[in-house]
Amino acid sequence: MDxxxxxxxxRHGETRFSDVEVRSYSLPLKDGDTFLGxxxxxxxxxxxxxxxxxxxxxxxxPPFGSDRTHELTGDDLDAAxxxxxxxxxxxxxxxxxxxxxxxxxxVLAEFLETAEWRGTQRVVCGGGLMEGDVGAELVxxxxxxxxVDRPDLELRRLHHAPDEAGMIGWTVAAPAGALxxxxxxVAVDIGGTNVRWGIVRSxxxxxxxxxxxxxxHDKWCHAEEDVSxxxxxxxxxxxxxxxxxxxxSNGIRLAPLVGLSCPGIVCxxxxxxxxxxxxxxxxSDGEFELPKAIAAEVGAIAGRRPAxxxxxxxxxxxxxxxxxxxxxxxxxxVTLGTGLGNCSFQNH
Length: 348
Known about the structure:
By secondary structure, the chain is an alpha/beta fold. It has 2 domains: about 30-155, no CATH class; about 165-315, ATPase, nucleotide binding domain (Nucleotidyltransferase, domain 5), CATH 3.30.420.40. Helix content is about 35%, strand content about 20%. It has helices at about 5, 40-55, 75-80, 90-110, 130-145, 160-170, 170-175, 230-250, 290-300, 315-320; strands at about 20-25, 30, 35, 120-125, 155, 185-190, 195-200, 215-220, 255-260, 265, 270-275, 305-310, 330-335, 340-345. Strand 4 (about 120-125), helix 5 and strand 5 (about 155) form a beta-alpha-beta unit. The protein is globular and about 65 Å long. Mean pLDDT is about 90; it is low at about 1-5.
């Protein structure tokens, strides 16, 4: 019998951990036929930005030149924000932030009215849109709008970079005892646009996610390619094997654990019930088990068959913030990426 399988029973999508309980995640709230998350995602912000570019054309040329809106970098947007009072680009980003923060506040207000979010004292915002000066300004303005009706509610951004938070959260979500066998582990964050994999140093994991760090990582933008679900699995497994080789070459002692996170409702057996619509192919067909598919491709880690565990990506990213949430009882998180991830928590 595999000693790892008997020592580390795996339950995917776990909702109770030693310090915190997941009250909800991936709530499918709707405004008519539209999911609320589709109104306040990172992708939706780019649509708002595109409309403002077409609307403001003071010089006869589109602000930001001929660049397509989805190709503008965070640095491009931050630079425009610093010039909001003097350039067309600055007015575009100023107006886009104003319009989007109003929409974002309205969406959060709807979540805060649900039974699952009731009593929330703090909301942490993650996802790629939250990086840089634009992310900070969005949080500030959304907070200001919400304080009219909820003066005690606090909004803040992740302390870790979003790319890293989606892996570091496994220091909390890992099965009991999984991190004790090594100083680091491999984690994978699967999004609607990119897949990221990396090595998380967790030597002091008992101190919580604040002490963890991503010491090596890589990224693949699957949205730019016409790929199948099986091709994504194969590429993830290849990335994991590359991280294992790097750890071996550099004397990094890995725990036999692979943490996987992706959008959707995760069943205890590793299937996705729903919510993977932004991923290539059908990830909720009832037969597909991502952890099993990855385990079959990865092989051994540190001479042992690893525990491959799956959870929702917003939950894992939010759990990276647990150390900073000790002073509240109920808190929540949203991730603004291709879609809008949502989850809520209660500390023990």
